[in-house]
Amino acid sequence: MQQYFIKGVVQFPLTVRDKDTVKHMFSVMRLVEDDEVVLVFEDGIKRLARVADRERHVLNLVEDLPDNAELPIHVTIASGFPKGDKLEWVAQKTTELGAAAIWAFPADWSVAKWDGKKLAKKADKLEKIVLGAAEQSKRNWVPEVRLFEKKIDFLDCLSQFDRVIVAYEESAKEGESAALVKAVTELKKGSRILFVFGPEGGLSPAEIATLEEVGAILAGLGPRILRTETAPLYALSAVSVLTELLQ
Description:
It catalyses: uridine(1498) in 16S rRNA + S-adenosyl-L-methionine = N(3)-methyluridine(1498) in 16S rRNA + S-adenosyl-L-homocysteine + H(+). The protein is α/β, with parallel strands linked by helices. 34% of the residues lie in helices and 23% in strands. It folds into 2 domains: 62 residues, CATH 2.40.240.20; 172 residues, SPOUT methyltransferase, trefoil knot domain (Alpha/beta knot), CATH 3.40.1280.10. The radius of gyration is 20 Å and the shape is globular. The relative contact order is 0.15.
């Protein structure tokens, strides 16, 4: 069954006004009267809805649904600006894997250089990608997208998290294997966790030192060295196993 995110408060009945949603519902999917879809409002609750008037784009809300596809902890993925369209790919896949937010910042060794205008355009594109991925994966929430023009602004946000974990290549090389498991399993349901990933060249020694100063945990992601676009997927998969499948 198709799922759509609806901005605004719950309405009885509901008139769909977003042009993209209307187009997909009634032109692409060709919904007609009595067809059913799942709608998710800004409260994160899924609701079964039935088309009442195809021409006026009106749907009746039938019932609330108990489905919850969210991770037990809120995970934010923060990547140093990567090259090309890697961030788009990361945004789509981490949304499917349950990320609550996708952030990116200008790391010391980032090759990509995005100013305010480029960042705004990039953010708009990413928001559309995560919306589609959230609908496809039946999420209850659409992840936040936030791109920082200045690294200091990113660092100033670290205090809002219960735990900050840095994916550190040197930890993996040294055979460290317990930090990630320990950091995640100690968290309570609803906790906020931030994973920090470097760009293609990794995080600089200065960045590692700064992150350690604010209490970040350095953790390896297994014995193999992962690409910047692969590491966030590993981290989220590990979180899912530790907080959902093993509970």
